[in-house]
Each structure stands twice: as structure tokens, then as C-alpha cells.
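Quick illustration for those who missed Monday's session on complexes.
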Amino acid sequence: MKKWGILTACILLAGSLLAGCGSKPSTEGSTAAGEQPASGKTIVLGTSADFPPYEFHKMVNGKDQIVGFDIEIAKEIAKDMGAQLEVKDMSFDALLGELSTGRVDFVISGLTPNEERKKQIDFSNNYYKAEQAVVVREADKDKYSTMKALEGASLGIQKGSIQEDIAKTIPGAKITGLGKISDIVLQLNSSRVDASIMEKPVAEAYIKNVKGLVIADAVPDYKEDGYAIGIKKGNTELVNQINKTLDRLKSENKIEQYVAEASDLAAQK
Ligand code: ARG
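Prediction with arginine bound:
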């Protein structure tokens, strides 16, 4: 019954953002179109492609692709290195481990460079900033107008995210930890959880595509440090290389452009 419910939800919500419905662990190898580097070198990006407009699945010319502004930044990093880009999609909570064991070379995944993570991996300079938001069902919007109202509620939260830390500070909250935000959205829509916390641009992208969900007035109290790119501890050379590309993109105003383009793409049905 439960399985059928999820399946039905997948069918009903088969909007583009939920393309990764179900738990198929997809590993996508993709190359920045049209560029075949002479070196034959490949650089592997780890990401959790459930995070529009940063990284998400989209049908492009009948093919499931991983797109988003983090992916555009990754393509530029690969280009500056003269390398081919391979994208590996996985659960968010697997990313840091994959980086430390060297199965991926870098992580771009809306990653917040907090102190705890800095002990485990190195970070580039920050490249973007976002606030937090609480997503609820439309009918519950008035109920969750303050963070206090979330006390004792059941929350769908991405495993290993800073949102998990935020959720743990809410007294009595029952936390359901899931690997993919797309699955959390399904749980919310089918009333298995009451609310979720996610970054505001991501919340906005989902509520545009999934009927019946809204952003509540409750705002989590969290000082956002911005996003940075994760690199294996001690690989200073790659940190410098990536910072150089980020500086170039910032000076060309490319990041704002990628954000605008990815937001348009995420809003398209
Ligand atoms: N910024 C939050 C964190 O670093 C959430 C990132 C989630 N990213 C994703 N691609 N799902 O914990």
C-alpha cells in the first residue's frame, strides 16, 4: 500500500523536477558538449542532483540530463583544466565520503562550508549565498507561521545536510532523514511528514512544479555562510585552480547569468 502510494505520487507528480523518482542510484557520466580536451584527462564531479536550480534532472532532447548552475560552474572548471567533466549523482550524505576516498575529485552541491566539514575536507572560496525556508502543504500554511509552531511536528529532512542541524534544534521535532529532496517532497505531498526545511531557491523551484505545497511564514534562524566547492583535504593545488576559475566567473558576471538561466530551466515544465 505504502509503495503503491509513492508510485501513484510519482505518476501524479511526474513533473520534471521529480524525474529521479524512486530510489534508483543513478550515476551519470556526462561531458561538457562540444569540447574534447586533447589531454584525455577526466575530472569527476560529485553532486546530489535533487536541488533545483543548483543541480537537477531535466529531460533535454528526450534525454535525462543533469543541469543547473552548479553544473555550469563545474563545466568551466573542467574547461580551465583542459579536462573532460564526468558527473556522478548520489545521495547528499555520501558526498564527503566519496571525496575523501578519491572516488570524486570535487563536490559542487550547494554545499555549506561549515566548521565541522572543514575538519574533513577543504573548500574553495564562496560562490553564492541563500536563505532557509520551511515548506508545508497549502492547507497548513497558517498553522506554521512561526518556528515555535514546528515544535513536535514531523519533518522531512535531507540526511547529512545543515537542515538536519537546524531541525535538531526544534524541540520535539520528529525527523525523517532521506537521501534525496525529491523524495522528501513526495512525503510532504502525501502527508507522511508535516514540513521540510530547505534553501529558499530550492523551495521556490519545487513549489512552482508541485501543486499543493507552499513556503510557510516560519523562517529558520540560521546564519548562512554561503556555498563553496568541496575538495579533498590537502589538495591545495586543486583549491587554487578552482578559485581561479571562480574569480574569472565572478569578474565576468557569469554566476548571476548561470543562476538566471538555471532558474528559467527549472521553472519550465
Ligand atoms: N546547503 C545545505 C548543506 O550544505 C544543503 C545542500 C543540499 N544540496 C543538495 N544538492 N541536495 O548541507
